[in-house]
């Protein structure tokens, strides 16, 4: 049957997409109180991946960023413990919109992204994670490279009043540690409320090569939510959460997280009404704050200078969306916006110097100086489906404003500081983005989709305002640039979905992205403030970058004797006219040169995973064998002196047992052969040229008690 | 009963979320001096304290103790103001030497010794 696909000329490219084969529906549904776009029908041409609650339970990680990497072409930059900064098809940081319910953003305090949005959520809190690749989904805020929506469990209403509770306990041997979470709720037809709390405490892990990695961490979280709903389906939800970390170690950074105190809250109102001009209206207001403290006290350099960075951020925003159907056209219209502030400094105490005026000498350096950014946008999305065709049009307009206090850098040994006055930090942009998609259905078991998109994103806070910190892949202090222009992504995606007569599914796609004004960095003749760096780079708009690749998935029907779930993916990124800093054999900067074409840094190599399972053969017991092969990455950035990464093969075993209705046990072993390896996106350990190794063999067990 | 169990579980869980740092016994110590030393040290409150103990023989010992949380900066700096002075200063953590240094027969500021660091975390 699959030969037919060849006849259509699609597999000649072998550019396929999607692991979860969970494309979007033309209508949102409510699943346990969480709004998602991921039903079984697949009219959208744009690629969507979904990780369900059940899948979340099967992945032994305390970090949603790590869990995201089970999606094809989603990876993460790793600098410390299991806290990954997501990378989707080579897009990262400000190029991605990573959000919680209602479009909520949590602006991390660390300029080096120790604490991306995903680090503030425990997997136990999540109902689902949705990844919308490409610049096509424009309903969820500014989106240039992709949207990652992390949707937590909302209070669910119940026709019969009652309590519910859930207890999750997890143990691992490497990292050695445990995590536990509890939630308890009460629900009626019109009221629902829940409380939750949890903690994780993990020690240092041992790599497959036997090295002990200083990666211990402690986290805990808690929260509450209530929801009210009347007979006419007006729903009001209020939630408040706290997320905390302390003594979180980052061997690939010059500092560790000493404390992180994050609070976020959300107020949502929605109404669903059938056969009315406005079928659904939702309004949400959100707020988040972060207090992040990090220091170098566990680094050798702290013997001479103790550096402590103390950063406060806040973010607040709103989202309004109305949905309607007019002459068969599903229409969404709405507005969203946010305002983010960031302020903080680094205090350096020179502890080996004699007292001055009765004090130990110290120096305060601003990392952020009252930096702030505001974004307000309006969006619309129209779509329609008939028997053979589905089309979608989307557009959004954003006004973006950013400013900072004076950016001053005292130059060692010279009286004149590097200075950008506050009035020169202001920038305003009017960004417009649009996308279109069309899907053609053939014989109910084959569909082809084409998506085209053009999306803009304004530079993020780091790119605009960071003051002298080594935030990049290479060993340079980085300086923000308030004069940066927005990046623009022009992207085309071709997708295919094919279902065999026995329910097996093959799906995938190819993408090509052309990014104009790609933000990179060039060296400038300033003296660095950080020890052991080579110089200073400043963010600039480079020339065009190109990203292209494919994703492919095959999975068998659940009634097969042996279940097969296979996927493969690769992204290939290049940039034109990149500047390379020349460094001699003594590690000294001698000049710069220009590379006609260079690889983009930190792009993951080709990888493929094959999962074999025996579903439903043994009652309440499902074993899974997983093989993951990652190729060597030899397409590396010369401008960033990126290093090649060897390939590796991992074998993982997993089993799920459900002895009673209330109890689920997930257990397994990852990296069965205790292979020594590291991912290409793992940053280098500070003071070495070695990438941060991954854990060796990991035994884990997770027990879930569920009372309803 | 089930509800009570849940509340108890919640309490146990939250009580485990303890980020209070461990406390350690820190001793600043000076010895092997034969004249007045000018010592500055950082106390647990973060204040820099200056003292000028008089040493009459190399057997004399000056010491001050404090309870410091892990991660706190410890600091002592000492010098003498006459030629031919000697000194040995130490920082002890829970009775064991964390850092130590000495200077002998250096004039004035050249004889200054500064010891500093961070109270290490218990692994």
Give an overview of the whole structure.
The complex is a heterodimer of chains A (708) and B (123). By secondary structure, chain A is mainly β. Chain A has a single domain, classed as Maltoporin, Chain A (Beta Barrel). The relative contact order of chain A is 0.13. Chain A has 4 helices and 40 strands. In chain A, the strands form 7 sheets. Chain A has a 22-stranded antiparallel beta barrel. Chain B has 123 residues and is mainly beta. Chain B has one domain (22-118): Sandwich (Immunoglobulin-like), CATH 2.60.40. Chain B contains 1 helix and 8 strands. In chain B, the strands form 2 sheets. Chain B has a 4-stranded antiparallel β-sheet with strand order 4-1-6-7, with no helix packed on it. In chain B, a hairpin with a 5-residue loop joins β2 (38-42) and β3 (48-51). Chain B is elongated, with a radius of gyration of 21 Å. The model of chain B has no long low-confidence stretch (mean pLDDT 84). Classes of the chains: A mainly beta (708), B mainly beta (123). Chain A binds chain B through residues 163, 165, 167, 180-182, 184, 195, 197-199, 201, 204, 216, 218, 220, 222, 244, 246-247, 258-259, 295, 297-298, 302-303, 306, 349, 351-355, 358-360, 707, and chain B through 2-3, 6, 9-10, 13-14, 16-17, 19, 40, 42, 48, 50, 71, 73, 75, 77, 79, 109, 112, 114, 116-118, 120-121, 123.
